[in-house]
Automatic annotation (TrEMBL):
Membrane found in the keyword field: yes
Organism: Kribbella pittospori
Pfam families referenced in this protein's UniProt entry, alphabetically: DUF1206
Keyword annotations from UniProtKB, A to Z: Membrane, Transmembrane, Transmembrane helix
Record's protein name: DUF1206 domain-containing protein
Keyword Membrane listed: yes
Domain DUF1206: start-end pairs: 34-98, 116-177, 198-266
Amino acid sequence: MNSSGDRPGGGSASAKRAAARAGDHPVVEWGARLGYAASGVLHLLLAYLTAQIALGGGSQEASQSGALATLAEKPVGQVLLWVIAAGFALLALWQLTELVTRYEASDKAKAGGKLVLYSALAWTSFTLASGGRTSTSQQTEEFTATLMEAPGGRVVVGLVGVAIIGIAAYHVDKGWRERFLQDLQEHPGRGVVLAARVGYIGKGIALAAVGILFITAAIQQRAGKATGLDGGLRSMRDLPAGTVVLLGIALGLAAYGVYSFARARYARV
């Protein structure tokens, strides 16, 4: 008799079962929840840096690496970074199991995107915890410059900007329509729902600014324009009512951080 791995699709089914078992493992489940809590810390730090930019200060880069570098400067910051790195790594592992076990292409795409995101955050946290240095803005600029040099690179950079704006719109829609409740195993309470709505909308606005910078870089053929979240936020400061807008985004990022802590408890893992 043939084993399941010898039948058509048997290997795929076995891989899905193995991934499902891994995703249900208590360590992975606990780690995923730790990862959501780490995301809460990250967004609170981003909110702090954004508020500093709004008020005319802020020498630290308002980015994922800048936020984590701020934490590294605090007492016991290095220890927290190791915990955060572990949380993001385990959350990435859980997204990998979701990527394997999901059947819908849209679900696989979301899991794959989150896998890349949380893996990058885990690596950044690990680098800083080990005493290294990294800059998200510099990496974004170098990535954009590399794309610009490729045939049709300007078009690709422009499409990246459009894609980021699409993700931004997804965040705003998810917050406005409270679709984030689908990610939770039970209703978290009205306060958490309000924080989530404000958080998703605020984060969406910040991402839209990043997308606009990519499109601007493509049109002007200047890779230096695409500097990620930090560049997007700083570009808003000189706009009419830019300070108010930035403070609103800071509030949104802080609210998303609060929601992330609640998600660590209520997430459907």
